[in-house]
């Protein structure tokens, strides 16, 4: 890991430490468990495993060592283990955020798309394999007593935004608001670089990440589903009401 990023395992360890602190503050484990059972946890994992690992053959050999199915299985095995650890430490309401259309990000378009506009099918195909397994993991976790896990279909939501960009007020769906090169995606935003003047009309902020305007749509539909495919088995507003 580079910089100050904390891996999933480290975040779970930090959560376990925080739970012990909460037990000490509240006085006993039962009171802490009751409090934690009302909290909503959100977990989003996977996009960087594909962007910065599986599809980076110059730096990692996972793309040649694993088929997309095998790689997804490996990620989900780790995911399951960490979610079970969270559950054992009191997490009961958990929203799992699926991976979005990584193959449509400006960096991937710049690198692999012949016309700079068509999403990269082999990348999005691998993402969908992972998301299907994550969907199934929700059902597995919900067999645990008191568990309320739900899957947020970020891929479906983002697909709708891309397919209906104009209806959402976007005029640019393939280039970052800042960046360098083709699609503003060959090099991501540089220090002191002036971003575009119409950031709310861009689906992507930089070479990899959606803009604030796009994220607001994803957030709203995650909280209150606009389509039956947005969340399974419930959206976050329903999760909050339990």
Automatic annotation (TrEMBL):
Gene Ontology annotations of biological process type: lipid catabolic process
Signal peptide positions on this chain: none
Origin: domain of life: Eukaryota
Localization: Secreted
Keywords carried by this UniProt record: Hydrolase, Lipid degradation, Lipid metabolism, Secreted, Signal
InterPro entries to which the protein is assigned, alphabetical: GDSL (IPR001087), GDSL_esterase/lipase (IPR051238), SGNH_hydro_sf (IPR036514)
Gene Ontology, cellular component aspect: extracellular region
Main subcellular location of this protein, as a coarse class: secreted
GO molecular function per UniProt: hydrolase activity, acting on ester bonds
Family: Belongs to the 'GDSL' lipolytic enzyme family.
PANTHER family reported for this sequence: GDSL ESTERASE_LIPASE, GDSL-LIKE LIPASE/ACYLHYDROLASE-RELATED
Identification of the protein by name: GDSL esterase/lipase
């Amino acid at each position: 890991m580079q910089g100050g990023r904390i891996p999933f395992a480290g975040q779970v360890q930090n959560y376990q430490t925080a739970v012990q602190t909460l037990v000490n503050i509240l006085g006993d484990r039962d009171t802490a468990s009751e409090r934690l059972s009302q909290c909503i946890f959100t977990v989003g994992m996977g996009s960087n495993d594909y962007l910065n690992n599986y599809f980076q053959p110059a730096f990692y050999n996972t793309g040649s060592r694993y088929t997309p199915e095998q790689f997804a299985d490996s990620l989900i095995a780790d995911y399951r283990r960490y979610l079970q650890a969270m559950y054992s430490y009191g997490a009961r309401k958990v929203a799992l955020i699926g991976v979005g259309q990584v193959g449509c990000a400006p960096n991937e378009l710049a690198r692999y798309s012949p016309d700079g506009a068509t999403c990269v099918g082999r990348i999005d195909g691998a993402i969908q394999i992972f998301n299907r397994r994550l969907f199934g993991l929700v059902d597995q976790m919900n067999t645990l007593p008191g568990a309320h896990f739900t899957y947020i279909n970020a891929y479906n939501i983002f697909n709708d935004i891309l397919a209906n960009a104009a209806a959402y007020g976007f005029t640019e769906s393939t280039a970052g608001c800042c960046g360098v090169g083709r699609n503003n995606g060959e090099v991501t935003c540089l220090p002191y670089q002036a971003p575009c003047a119409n950031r709310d009309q861009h689906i992507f902020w930089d070479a990899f990440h959606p803009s604030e305007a796009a994220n607001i749509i994803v957030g709203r539909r995650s909280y209150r589903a606009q389509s039956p495919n947005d969340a399974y088995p419930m959206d976050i507003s329903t999760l909050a009401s339990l």
